[in-house]
Amino acid sequence: MKFSCATSFLLVASAAAFAPSSISSRPATAIFGDPNQNPFGNQPSIQWGGNDSDPNAKTIRLRERLNEADTERRKAEEEALQRERAAEIRREERMRKIAYMQQMPDNQPAGTVEEFMFKEGVQDQLDKLDRELVGLLPVKKRVKEIAALLVLDKMRRKLGFETSVPSLHMCFTGAPGTGKTTVAVRMGQILAKMGYSRQGHVVLATRDDLVGQYVGHTAPKTKEMIKKAMGGVLLVDEAYYLYNAANDRDYGQESIEILLNVMETQQDDLVVALAGYKDRMDKFFSYIPGMMSRIGNHIDFPNYSAEELVQIASVMAGQLEYDIDNNAYNTFYHYIQKRMELPYFSNARTVRNAMDRARMNSAIRTFDRFAIRGENGGVCTVQDLKSITSEDFQVLLDDILYADADKRIFA
């Protein structure tokens, strides 16, 4: 069936006439919606407020972009000029240094080595090392060699020679009680005297200080210890415990990687010293070759002889203002010989423990004489309070000779 346009109009009009009044009374926008209404809600849309057809607006936007480009260009030109000027200054300084070195006679005085050693305080630190450490001649020799390099390097800088900071990271290997910590402290002070470290202090760290117990805990701990040691020496005792070959997921590997990075990038402000038994340190370096290549000074600390340990006991007694009787030295020597054959021997630490026991035995003996038995009316002399006798050391020797093996006191 076909309808003409007039017929269609009549049909639409008829439908509107018979529609309910509620519908016919509503506006068209309520039925079909307002075509100008924001479909995304009541918030106004983000729209361009200007007029794209306005030539003035287009000119303003173009001018702004040109100004921004011009500013960036000027900044780039200024940076290029600064780099060029800095390079020119370096060239001029180098040419002046070359001219100075060519004109300087070979016999130009640079000062004596002794002058630098005493003026910088290096000689004083080496003298303290000789006084405080008995024996260890190879160690002292190595420390003096490092000090000599630093002194002569400073003399070269004074004359204008090219210099570079040597690798000062160290590895101390040896048994416990051989003076590794003492040497590290003295090296830190020497470096501070020579201007190679800001403070010269020594921070002692172990695995517990560097390695965390869970994911994300190791890096903050390691970085905190490094922060404390900045400007001085970080001494990692028993460093081989940082690496656990049996566990690929051990957190110590993260600490090692941080140390390696710091040793490479912060060597001007931090000296890292590793310490431990030689065989274990060699095995540790076989697992971490990058650590081995970053350490330029390897110092091995030999064990003390019995005679040197007796001398160490004498030094300790003098520092505590005690007097050891002449006969007591012989008794202590026999004690040390027997003690060296037993487990857990720790060189100077064993001597320190033995001296503590000897002082306690001296106190017990003096208290028994004057307080318990009332000798001399209970009045003791200064010498009584300072004296360590053969009897005081004999107690230690008897513990080894006559006590049961499971009851021995390992001083």
TrEMBL record:
Chain spans, region Disordered: 29-55
InterPro entries per record: AAA+_ATPase (IPR003593), AAA_lid_6 (IPR041627), ATPase_AAA_core (IPR003959), CbxX/CfqX_mono (IPR000470), CbxX/CfxQ (IPR000641), CbxX/CfxQ_RuBisCO_ESX (IPR050773), P-loop_NTPase (IPR027417)
UniProt xrefs under PANTHER family: AAA-TYPE ATPASE FAMILY PROTEIN / ANKYRIN REPEAT FAMILY PROTEIN, AAA-TYPE ATPASE FAMILY PROTEIN _ ANKYRIN REPEAT FAMILY PROTEIN
A Pfam short name: AAA_lid_6
One GO MF term attached to the UniProt entry: ATP hydrolysis activity
Lineage: Eukaryota, Sar, Stramenopiles, Ochrophyta, Bacillariophyta
Compositionally biased intervals (Polar residues): 35-55
Domain of life (superkingdom): Eukaryota
Domain AAA+ ATPase: 166-305
Protein family per UniProt: Belongs to the CbxX/CfxQ family.
Signal peptide per UniProt: 1-17
Alphabetic keyword roster: ATP-binding, Coiled coil, Nucleotide-binding, Signal
Coiled-coil regions listed in the entry: 59-86
Keyword Plastid included in the entry's annotation: no
Name of the protein in its database record: AAA+ ATPase domain-containing protein
